[in-house]
């Protein structure tokens, strides 16, 4: 488990490209037949990837979280960004297709990831997990891809028409503090989350997926008046502190998993910024 310590906005102006990427860009989560994990001290969120190829992958614990098993004191949302697979949670098996979501509540002990068709067109399953500390337990709940609360946002005229699926949220799958969903850009639209916003009460994590291998997303981050950018590839993530905007434009169409944890679960609790005010 890699550790990423929290940063403040005052750190950003002095960072070069290498440091920005080292602190905020998350790469190599999906390792064949293994689990990759990053612990960010922004709201103590863990970003984790599991890629079962030749056999099942068991989610163990990590010394950094001081727990007998991973979900002893935590909860998590999971989205499959690869081929079809299964997740077994304490003896119950869930069939999880591309883009589907599974919430696992505090107290779940045995979690195993398996690919159903590792040689298929979409390759092995690749399970992306965002986990946060939890102080109560909610039941493990599965949601098919596209079966969450659907919101249509943006406009083709501004190249940001997108379909947002809310899976784990205050009026959907219940959780202690994790909020999660998937956004897919419409054909011809490339911008996500523009106009941009912050929400100083919650951190956010992005994982871009379904992006062609030779394409990239230019992800904007930083304070609205002191922005920086990251060049992000397929199945790479971004840690977005509560004070940072999180928006991007792709060189091809893409989807992304967004997840938040922090003070509240209100999706619309945002502080928006017109692009004319950004620097």
TrEMBL record:
The keyword Oxidoreductase does not apply. Keywords: Isomerase, Metal-binding, Zinc. The keyword Glycosyltransferase does not apply. Its EC number is 5.3.1.17. It is an enzyme of class 5 (isomerase). CDD domains: cupin_KduI_C, cupin_KduI_N. Pathway: Glycan metabolism; pectin degradation; 2-dehydro-3-deoxy-D-gluconate from pectin: step 4/5. It comes from the Bacteria. Its cofactor is Zn(2+). Catalyzes the isomerization of 5-dehydro-4-deoxy-D-glucuronate to 3-deoxy-D-glycero-2,5-hexodiulosonate. NCBIfam families: PRK00924.1 (NF002091). Belongs to the KduI family. This is 4-deoxy-L-threo-5-hexosulose-uronate ketol-isomerase. The gene is kduI.
């Amino acid at each position: 488990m890699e550790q990423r310590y929290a940063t403040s906005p005052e750190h950003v102006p002095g960072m070069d490209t290498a440091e920005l990427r080292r602190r905020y860009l998350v790469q190599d989560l999906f390792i064949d037949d293994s689990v990759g994990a990053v612990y960010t001290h922004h709201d103590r969120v863990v970003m984790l990837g599991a890629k079962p190829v030749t056999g099942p992958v068991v989610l163990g614990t990590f010394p950094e979280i001081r727990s007998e098993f991973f979900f002893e004191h935590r909860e998590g949302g999971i989205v499959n960004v690869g081929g079809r697979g299964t997740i077994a949670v304490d003896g119950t098996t869930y069939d999880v297709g591309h883009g589907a979501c599974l919430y696992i509540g505090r107290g779940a002990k045995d979690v195993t990831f398996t690919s159903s068709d590792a040689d298929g067109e979409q390759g092995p399953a690749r399970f992306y997990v965002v986990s946060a500390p939890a102080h109560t337990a909610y039941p493990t709940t599965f949601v098919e891809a596209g079966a969450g609360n659907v919101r249509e946002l943006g406009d083709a005229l501004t190249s940001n028409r997108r379909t947002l699926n809310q899976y784990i949220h205050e009026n959907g799958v219940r959780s202690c503090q994790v909020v999660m969903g998937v956004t897919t850009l419409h054909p011809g639209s490339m911008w996500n989350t523009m106009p941009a916003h912050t929400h100083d009460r919650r951190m956010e994590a992005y994982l871009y997926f379904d992006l062609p291998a030779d394409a990239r997303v230019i992800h904007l981050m930083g304070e609205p008046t002191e922005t920086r950018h990251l060049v992000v590839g397929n199945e790479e993530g971004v840690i977005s502190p509560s004070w940072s905007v999180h928006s991007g434009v792709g060189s091809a169409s893409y989807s992304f998993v967004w997840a938040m944890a922090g003070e509240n679960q209100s999706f619309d609790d945002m502080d928006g910024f017109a692009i004319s005010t950004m620097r």
